[in-house]
């Protein structure tokens, strides 16, 4: 996996440098609406091109699943899952929370994840059974065991408004049960922050595989748990995800189950 990781890091950094040079300089005509509250810019497209060219140069037979081009799973031994710019709305407004996310799936199993934050020059990466790292420093999930003291990251279900009422129920339940909640607008960064203990847990509805694949590897290698809302491992297909250490994860599963039942 080491060669795959080095190429993924190189690709993520190349795309990140390109993005950083252009944040705050986006024009309205550069923005295209994919759907309600969901945008794509020429920067997303070019960033994806940079990443794919890097990967194809080294691994020409590998398949790729990417947000702005090939969005479907392929039956492949090696499948790269790419989000070239997570936090596009933040990028458009110059709000400095965004990242590049690259994951590798081997025979249906996520084995490698890289998330690069070009604004802070923070590189998160992990391989199966090799630990998780931030800029070469090993990272671990939060050890917090009291949910009432926890800081929980989340994201609004802006792509699927049908989930808003359910989301509000969960939000209301958690608002009185945790220390506070944070919504920064980039799921990949949220998951990286769970992996390094900056937040204690995370949940969100209806994400895409490229939003979460790399973060899943990071969190698992940092000692955390990841699941769907029902505690299963179907998060890549459902898009519903909960993450945290054993205690916080269990607390979030139970809280969300209770909220949705009511």
N-to-C order of helices and strands: HEEHEEHEEEEEEHEHEHEHEH
- Largest pleated sheet: 7 strands, mixed
> What structural class is derived from the secondary structure elements?
alpha+beta
Strand content: 25-35%
Description:
The protein is 37% helix and 26% strand. The strands form 3 sheets. Strands 3-4-5-6-7-8-9 form a 7-stranded mixed sheet, with helices on both faces. A 5-stranded mixed sheet has the order 11-10-12-14-13, with helices on both faces. A two-stranded antiparallel ribbon has the order 1-2. A hairpin with a 2-residue loop joins strand 8 (132-134) and strand 9 (137-139). The protein has helices spanning 2-22, 42-58, 88-93, 164-175, 187-195, 209-221, 235-238, 246-261, and strands at residues 31-35, 38-41, 63-66, 78-86, 99-106, 109-117, 122-127, 132-134, 137-139, 151-154, 180-182, 201-204, 225-227, 241-244. The model has no long low-confidence stretch (mean pLDDT 91). Helix 1 runs antiparallel to helix 2 (42-58), helix 4 packs across helix 8 and helix 5 packs parallel to helix 6. By secondary structure, it is α+β, with helices and mostly antiparallel strands. The protein starts with a helix and ends with a helix. The protein has 2 domains: 2-139, 2-Layer Sandwich (Fructose-1,6-Bisphosphatase, Chain A, domain 1); 147-261, D-Maltodextrin-Binding Protein, domain 2 (3-Layer(aba) Sandwich). The radius of gyration is 17 Å and the shape is globular. The longest helix is centred in the N-terminal third of the chain and has 21 residues, at 2-22. It contains 8 helices and 14 strands.
